[in-house]
Amino acid sequence: AQSVTQPDIHITVSEGASLELRCNYSYGATPYLFWYVQSPGQGLQLLLKYFSGDTLVQGIKGFEAEFKRSQSSFNLRKPSVHWSDAAEYFCAVSQGQGLTGGGNKLTFGTGTQLKVEL
Amino acid sequence: NAGVTQTPKFQVLKTGQSMTLQCAQDMNHEYMSWYRQDPGMGLRLIHYSVGAGITDQGEVPNGYNVSRSTTEDFPLRLLSAAPSQTSVYFCASSARGGSSGANVLTFGAGSRLTVL
């Protein structure tokens, strides 16, 4: 069964500092990987996704993530954090494209809560 | 464009009561799903549907019932609420497979349920 590990429950960074949130996955085939962000009391918003191709993917709000197959990782990065980035971040993996076999089912990590100090 | 709409946003139930969480999407998405979010556990899939008339169980289906009579609506029913079902519930939808949008879920704003 597929699984996702986000080893950091809480992370605190200063505004303007760089950020890296860790994500490790367990999946037998080529995974489809996602990062979502959740602001307090809100739903989840997609930051970026990796389906195939270039292993460095760019997302919204200045975020990027790098897929490393050898390390089973998909870490999220941002060069300079803004106070508005404070939120909870979820990494997720999917079985694959399409609807057959429930391919749109996501397995989520437990989330990383980001606090930004001014 | 409303996207995915969930109602109610908040609900308090007593143990044993039943209720339905509503979910509607206006994007003509074939796939719809329900997740629950609990502290320290991320989101877990309850039930999902790949089209009208087709539903299947996810990771934590016990105590919940779903049906999909139309493409737009995917209600989640709690048959006899228990305190363990206190959670935040999210509905999500996505388009059919292919490189143009498969697996990209659009989430509703959530429904916070408390069972006393």
Overview of the structural elements:
- The complex is a heterodimer of chains A (118) and B (116).
- Chain A has strands at 3-5, 10-14, 19-21, 24-26, 32-38, 44-50, 56-58, 64-68, 73-78, 87-94, 106-108, 112-117.
- Chain A has 118 residues and is an all-beta fold.
- Chain A is globular, with a radius of gyration of 14 Å.
- The N and C termini of chain A lie far apart (41 Å).
- Chain B has 116 residues and is mainly beta.
- In chain B, the strands form two sheets. In chain B, strands 2, 4, 5, 6, 9, 10 and 11 form a seven-stranded mixed sheet that branches.
- The interface between A and B is medium-sized, with 31 and 30 residues.
Shape of chain B: globular
Beta-strand residue fraction of chain A: over 45%
How many alpha or pi helices of chain B? 0
What order do the SSEs of chain A take from the amino end to the carboxyl end, as H and E?
EEEEEEEEEEEE
Helix-strand category of chain B: mainly beta
Q: Tell me roughly what share of residues is in helical segments of chain A.
A: under 10%
The average pLDDT value of chain A, as a whole number, equals 89
Question: Terminal Cα separation of chain B, in Å?
Answer: 36 Å
**Largest interface (C-beta under 8 Å):** A-B, 31 and 30 residues
Strand count, sense and barrel status of the largest sheet of chain A are: 6 strands, mixed
Helix and strand content put the structural class of chain A at mainly beta
> What percent strand of chain B?
over 45%
